[in-house]
Amino acid sequence: MAKAEQNPSEEQKVMKGTSAVARGVMAANPDVVSAYPITPQTGVVEKLSDLVADGELDSEFIKVDSEFNAASTCIGASAAGARAFSATSSQGLKLMSEPLFTAAGMRLPIVMAVANRSLSAPLSIWADHTDAFAERDGGMMQFHAEDVQEAIDHVLMGFRVAEQVNLPVLSNFDGFILTHVQEPADIPTEEEVSEFLPPRDPEYTLDPSDPKTMGAFARPEHWTEARYEIQRAMEESKDVWAKTVEEFKEIFGRDYTEYNGMLDTYHGDADYRLVALGSMCGTIRKVIDEYRAEGVDVGLIRPRVHRPFPTEELREALGDAEAVGVLTKEMSPGYESALAGEIKGTLYHAENQPPIKSFVVGMAGRDITASDIGAMIEETMEASAPMAFDEQESWPQLREELLADGGD
Amino acid sequence: MDEIRIHGRGGQGSVTLAQLLAQAAHEEGTWAQAFPAFGVERRGAPVEAFARFDDEKITDRSQVDEPDYVIVQDTSLLEYVDVTEGLSEDGLVLVNTGADPEELDLETDAEVVTVDATDIALEHLGRPIMNTALLGAFAGATGLLGQDSMEAVITRKFSGEIGEQNVAATNDAYTEVSA
Amino acid sequence: MSESEDPYENLTITTGAVVEPNTSRVNKTGSWRQFKPVINVDACIACGQCDTYCPDQAAKPVEGEDYYGFDLDYCKGCGICEEVCPTDAIDMIREEK
């Protein structure tokens, strides 16, 4: 992404992230929207419900009593051939977990906007990626948006790729930081989107006049093959995604084609490379500018797509770095940041293995400041292997004075 | 880049003010960003909201700790909140009060501007919702936003008579502070 | 009236983040107030509607009197009492601090 873009056009609207995403979803013309309100997602489906009520969006908005039923309703609708959309956050995504794994197994291209938020307890309404990572292994594709524009565009491209490879999509955008910000964004029109996104053409649908069983029972002699097909579809989705970002660029002019649409970089060939997901990358870019002005060769590698995992792309993007710092808003208690672990696994069979430090930051909405990022750049520059396990990861924002033992 | 921090209380429209600032700046042809400090939203509790304007696309999403401009919606906050913390020496703090700047005794080298936005709001809207008056006063004090841009975004947000009343409050405050 | 002691200052995260009760007493929300309820004691019939509806339990009978008053340490000036008072005995007055 270019740091300096031309002044915002007249076409752009300054609106809240949730409203902008809802407008994007409207342009994709979903047949069914089913959702249950939860902070900080609520604005997305509240707006969609408004648009349906005002007659601007010709869609069934199906109100339900829980997120479990929102996802289940989307499964039914999608199985019947509908383009189905939902949105949620945090505990809501947890409650959807069971039907979402089912949707992946049933190979239903449901697209969801996930306004990322930490999971209880303690209860928090603010952003991190704990919710998205808890759904990592279900067979849903996952994207992470850096700004409001990407949050809109990822949903649209999500429909395009989902409906070709028959997998659900979780399109992540950070709660509050992106849901509640107002900034300029292009809202695609239905005409533009219809050129990009043809009507859904499913291979199988639930149809009483031509009965089928979907989501059937599978015995041990069959289940492995069904799961293997999800893995194959994920692999296939990389090529479809690469084509999708090209088509998107053609029609909308916004270029997400770097590294086949899997990664976005900023001074990606620098000696020291940070890796991060989502909105914190914006602040990281600013700090990179400051450090580069001081002669520090530091850059950013941002996975746009987390599932399918950008394995080959990350090997290429990170293999020749002096050191890598992974900044994450998630971690797996008992081990380390899941993203950091995945990156290490990816590089294990690559030619080079740069030392990798991971940093757990921005949990439950803790503000990530320029000086936080600067300190992590400096710690990354000092990283060298071998490292003991407790040297691999740090929590630089930890307020040790709040701990019962004062951090000792 | 111009960075603005707004101090208000829940229900006083701090977030709306940040949004109107960003929308008006965008109307002027610059990039803009507005967001609230993410806290627990309770009516009356001290809140903050932020806005940034720049010629380039704004990527920084951290809260504004070193503002160029500070807007204080309610002087009762001055007792509890260090509103000028981090404020640039060349900056400006705009306070909603009938008092003169020197009476406030703020600890800052930045310029202090006061306007009785609540009074202007009561006059035009009949209610103490002073954020559009503060928008006008900010524009008058800084020269960053034009009256046409403010009118455009206000009438887009508030239709009919309420829109007109808010535009009148904005223009009154603009004129008062510019004079 | 002084701003309350911040119950989150010097907080220690205990096992399971278990917390002590009564933080709402420490948090004197009166500092949030912009409008103050003023009662006309002659019009007050001591019906207690203000007490019933007050979200902060700041409306209370005044001891030894047949009218109600307000605990300004906690009244945050929402004006619900003014709305519900059946005899219009309560006015919300702008408070300059």
Notes on the protein architecture:
The complex is a heterotrimer of chains A (408), B (179) and C (97). Chain A has 408 residues and is α/β, with parallel strands linked by helices. Chain A is built from 13 helices and 15 strands. In chain A, α9 links the parallel β10 and β11. In chain A, α3 packs parallel to α4, α6 packs across α8 and α9 packs across α12. Chain B is an alpha/beta fold. Chain B has one domain: Pyruvate-ferredoxin oxidoreductase, PFOR, domain III (Pyruvate-ferredoxin Oxidoreductase, domain 3). Helix content of chain B is 39%, strand content 21%. With 97 residues, chain C is of the alpha+beta class. Chain C has three helices and four strands, in the order αβαββαβ. Chain C is elongated and about 55 Å long. At the A-B interface, β8 and α9 of A face α1 and β2 of B.
Number of strands of chain B: 6
Radius of gyration of chain B: 15 Å
> What CATH architecture of chain B do you see?
3-Layer(aba) Sandwich
Residue fraction in strands of chain C: 15-25%
Protein chain pair with the most extensive contact, residues per chain: A-B, 30 and 24 residues
Number of strands of chain C: 4
N to C succession of SSEs of chain B: EHEEEEHEHHHH
Assembly type of the chains comes to heterotrimer
> Can you identify the CATH class of the domain at 29-94 in chain C?
Alpha Beta
> Looking across the biggest beta sheet of chain B, what order are the strands in?
2-3-1-4-5-6
Give the CA-based shape of chain B.
globular
Distance between the termini of chain B: 26 Å
* Percent helix range of chain B: 25-40%
CATH-defined superfamily of chain B: Pyruvate-ferredoxin oxidoreductase, PFOR, domain III
Strand content of chain B: 15-25%
Name of the CATH class of chain B: Alpha Beta
Largest sheet of chain C, if any? 2 strands, antiparallel
Which spans of chain C of ≥5 residues are poorly predicted at pLDDT below 50? none
CATH second-level architecture of the domain at 29-94 in chain C: 2-Layer Sandwich
Structure, briefly:
The complex is a heterotrimer of chains A (408), B (179) and C (97). Chain A has 408 residues and is α/β, with parallel strands linked by helices.
Q: What attributes does this structure have?
A:
heterotrimer, A: 408 residues, alpha/beta, Rossmann fold, 2 domains, 7-stranded mixed beta sheet, 13 helices, 15 strands, 40% helix, B: 179 residues, Pyruvate-ferredoxin Oxidoreductase, domain 3, 6-stranded mixed beta sheet, globular
